[in-house]
Amino acid sequence: MHRLRASAKLVVLALIGSSFAFANGPADARSEGVLTAPAAYQATSPPKHATRIGYGGAVTSVDPDATRIGLRVLRQGGNATDAAIATAAALGVTEPYSSGLGGGGYFVHYDAKTGKVQTIDGRETAPRAMPRDAFIDPKTGKPYPFTPDLVTSGVSVGVPGTPATWQRALDRWGTRSLKASLAPATRLARHGFVVDKTFHGQTVDNKERFKAFTSTRRLFWKGGHAPRVGSTFRNPDLADTYDLLARHGLGPFYRGALGNQIVHAVRRPPTTRTTKLPVPPGFMRAGDLARYRAINRRPTSVGYRGYRVLGMPPSSSGGSTVGEALNILERYDLAGMDDAAALHHYLEASALAFADRAEYVGDPAYVDVPLADLLSPGFARERACRIHENHALKKPTRPGNVATYDGRCGPARGVSEPAPDTENINTTNLTVADRWGNVVEYTLTIEQTGGSGIVVPGRGFLLNNELTDFSTEFVKGDPNRIQPGKRPRSSMSPTIVLRNGKPFLALGSPGGSTIITTVLQILFDRIDRGMSIQQAIAAPRASQRNTPTSLAEPAFVAAYGPALAAYGQDLAVSGDTYTGATEIGAATAIEFGPARLMTAVAEPTRRGGGAAGVVRPRGAG
After folding, report:
1. pLDDT digit string (tens) for 546-571?
2. How many of the other CB atoms lie within 10 Å of CB of 354?
3. Are the C-beta atoms of 605 and 51 separated by less than 8 Å?
4. What is the pTM of this model?
5. Judging by beta carbons within 10 Å of its beta carbon (0-12, 13-18, 19+), is residue 320 exposed, middle or buried?
6. 3-class secondary structure for 497-518?
7. Residues known to be catalytic
8. CB 575 within 8 A of CB 581
9. C-alpha distances in angstroms, 601 versus 129, 497, 513, 598, 611?
10. Among 260, 238, 258, 239, CA closest to 250
11. Which tens digits make up the pLDDT trace of 591-616?
């Protein structure tokens, strides 16, 4: 999601006296509610570039204001983690339907001093009191309709992990405090940003859901209409919330008054009298927030054609599924194939990896995930036996047997059809690198476009609906079934690629379960098909997730549909059932060249185009 934003220069020119000092001085000078934007103040747009090449650090995200804020942190001496948290906090302002304090995500970090890649699992958790039949309507004995009924509810809200992720990342790798990291986003929330067609359209798309809650209607449907294109949208409640966390840390959120407000909104959603949605209440309690922890995890790691690809382990399925598919593809000389043959193998490898994802991957605290087996070259050799050079597998195909594989061809194990995919496309991603060589890839979300639809009253942020990522019906043996305290399986795939132990590429994307295929296809296009990173991100996409048809963007169908039909590959034009969008993913990436040259890339057109920036553009100065 992209919008026009305020340039820092014009903000300074618009403010005088003490306001000038506030806008440019240290975060310590701020106090809650000290500054509000003048009534005549209007936000304006920073420049937006899909590709920027240069030195000294880089930031790329979906939003120009967020990218601008991250670059400013780098220019002021902050490192990649400092800039990533500041950028993420800004996205909580400008991308409130995709991310924010009420959600969660996964943070992947490369440390230039040690050469290590490490990760933080900030995924949301189910309340301890959540029953296995939480998604069943007691009035009918059947599952609630998925949308808008189930997602627009307290029962869909997981315990948020984003604030804990920010603090843990800063504690491990940052040089700035949470207070300093939140300061730029706080100013942005007070001053506002320019509403564009995407923000306006997504608000209109959520009209019924947002009008179901008094707090959400007051923030996003003020005056009885969606924010108009070109108007300035301000969120002083969120600015006050950021101020609260800046002064007192995470205590109020996880163990205090703010946490109690979250719990109250989940258990007694602030519905309007006129809503016709059922809005089932949730099961969260204060103790669930107090028990929440962001978790340090070892990344997944596979070798691919001389590169080392590191990703996010379970509770995400991103690293394991991308890694397994790459292991399968490495069996083939894809560079020596024509486009149709190479793409046929890409789609088949993805289907096989998704079959294994459904069978084996869940929260490792509750499921014995056979990660080493899933990423074993021997297992990949055996799975590659299922690919026919001339025709497609019948899908859904069966998973492999991690208990008996020997690297040779044999029958696949039997299994029932995987549970329906309920992950939504609306997430956000950012990529940051600093002048010292540290790199961050961070994917964060509130799940649905607009999350649960519930704004915490007076706090300015939406709560997630991440628990709908659990299987909607409880099936014994399903690794992603509902269990108290569990993290639902995710497809978020923040990825860092090393070459000779040094960063070569960092990338990630939003897109629900198509995140996996987006990251996989970009790597395939960049490494095997010889595209530049700019070309790989712009290239039309297709997503095969062990389903009878592969979703594909219209341009992909036009370019490759007839040739792939000869292999029996069935393509269906992608389309989000909620928004109607036909795009797959919205990636960001940074590629690293000689002498620390950085190529920062965002989407040129998807979701209105992204915003890439570098500290010192090549040829400048």
Report:
1. 999 999 999 999 999 999 999 999 99
2. 29
3. no
4. 0.92
5. buried
6. EEECCEEEEEEECCCCCHHHHH
7. 427
8. yes
9. 44, 15, 22, 10, 8
10. 258
11. 999 999 999 999 999 988 999 999 99
